Amino acid sequence: MSYFKMCMPKTKVAVTIERDLISRVDELVAQHRFRNRSQAVESALSDKLQRMARTRLALECAKLDPKEEKALAEQGLAASRDTWPEY
Predict the structure, then answer these.
(1) How far apart are CA 58 and CA 69, in angstroms?
(2) Most exposed of 10, 14, 17, 59 (fewest Cβ within 10 Å)?
(3) 70-80, pLDDT tens digit by residue?
(4) CB atoms inside a 10 Å sphere around CB 25
(5) Which residues have a Cβ under 8 Å from the Cβ of 83 and sit 6 or more positions away?
């Protein structure tokens, strides 16, 4: 864990979690995979938010038309070809 992340301010939050799920978290804490429940929940929430952000990017990229993007790229290359230095 980075120094910056360890020093970030924390906010106490109360959550209600299914008994079976918290038992599984407690097992991970007992196995020293996490220091405590809070760290386990914070890690899971952070991972989920990161995955959601990547999913959103993928969804937005899927909206792009590959043919249109290629045409725009080729148009941009053709327009700037005259300004390229000689090698």
Answers:
(1) 16
(2) 14
(3) 888 777 666 66
(4) 19
(5) none
Is the sign of the CA dihedral 31, 27, 9, 48 positive or negative? positive
> Could you give the CA distance from residue 74 to residue 80 in angstroms, rounded to a whole number?
10
Terminal Cα distance for the chain, rounded: 47
- Give the contacts of 25 (CB within 8 A, at least 6 positions apart): 17, 34, 37, 40, 41
Q: Specify the pLDDT at position 53.
A: 83
Query: Averaged over 36-64, what is the pLDDT?
Result: 89
Overall average pLDDT of the 22-41 stretch: 97
